[in-house]
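Researcher: Here's a chain I'd like modeled. Treat it as a single chain, no partners, no ligands.
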Amino acid sequence: MRIVIPRETHPGENRVPVTPETAKKLCRLGAELVIEHGMGLGSGFTDEEYAAAGATLTSDREALFREGDLLLRLRKPRPEEVAMMKKGSIHISYLDPFNEHELVRLLQQHGVTSISMEMIPRTTRSQKMDALSSQANLAGYVMVLQAATHLPRIFPMMMTPAGTLKPAKVFVIGAGVAGLQAIATAKRLGARVTAFDTRPVVAEQVQSLGATFLDIDLGETGQTADGYAKELTPEQIQKQRDAQKATIAESDVVITTAQVFGRKPPVIVTRDMVEGMKPGSVIVDMAAETGGNVEGSVPNEVVAVNGVTIIGKGNLPNEVCRDASHMYASNLFNLVEDAWDKENARFKVDFDHDILPGCIITHGGEVTNETIRKILEGGN
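Model: Modeled as a single isolated chain. Structure tokens:
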């Protein structure tokens, strides 16, 4: 089986789907690995390292798409790339299938088997393949660093002959993977951290990191079978806003991580809350690219509202692209290895597999993922 790795062309993207370490592992599986020249440079991996791992390097990008049996990517393919892929080939990457309806139809029409890394089920066995979690972990770390860079004061308490500096107050909204890492990072930097999540079950995790859990009674909330927070009703969102308002006003830094997969994120920090914060305060909106948790945040920009800095930068793991590449490449390899037919040295598309059916979007000219198929049918 020929596994191909084209260079990522999305503006500013430096992460890569395969590192020299995972390239060596793919070759050991018995695959023929072909990589586009310069593919790893954004994260500091040279062509020579990939060649030493056993890969073949090429400058013929079109040939990669035409001849690849299995394409391993980070970003979703462009329409012209799908058109070049041969029928029956397999493409694995982020796909955003809840929103990229035309892309899904195009993959279906061209007979490409597409696998979405966002759709890896959240089970114990699939943790090593869970790219959303691995990248969110790094995003949580990066958000705190961005806040610390823009805050006009230090995070830790400091006792000096000139007086005592009080620790910064950080409020983290959402205690999923990104939120918990943000809490841990802010605590390591010496801040006083408060956190809130709609799932009361995570209070113990927040407290184990040394933060205070803000207890707000929203009625029945909980989490989905996949571990995501359930969507709140409009009444619950308003109750959350009202209860958080005082904590936000007292905070030096507010970090929001409330993303709802496949849907627009809720607005949980309103304009009046922003205006109620002290000048010099900082807000980091992790969901800015997909609609935003904060009124006034702008995707991929840093703006000021009444003296409050709102950071809406997207693609946060890209800020630490080398480690992000190591983690994503490991997730990707673990998925490939788990479905690898060792006897025939190929990736086996198996609908009896306990992980693959949930993340295969198209196969054999059909949209095989039931959830995505219903969304497409509803849009017709």
